[in-house]
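Lab notebook, design round three. We kept the backbone fixed and only want residue identities now. Task for the bench partner: fill in a sequence for the structure below.
Input structure tokens:
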């Protein structure tokens, strides 16, 4: 009797696993982000260059050692 009940339970579980059939996969649309640009993008490099030049001038010593 236990074998019949076990077989019935397994057969019911197997039929419910395939009850839905094969469904097509749902593909989400691809999200494309637009490239953003800042208005200060072209000014950063020249400002950094001026800062480096100013730091080099400030750190250079203009005095010579007396002989």
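Proposed sequence:
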């Amino acid at each position: 009797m236990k074998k019949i009940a076990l077989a019935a339970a397994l057969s019911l579980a197997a039929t419910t696993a395939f009850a839905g059939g094969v469904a097509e996969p749902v593909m989400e649309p691809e999200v494309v982000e637009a490239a953003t640009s800042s208005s200060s993008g072209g000014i950063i490099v020249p400002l950094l260059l001026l800062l480096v030049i100013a730091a080099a001038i400030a750190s250079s010593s203009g005095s010579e050692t007396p002989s």
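Keep this in mind before ordering anything: The mean pLDDT is 77.
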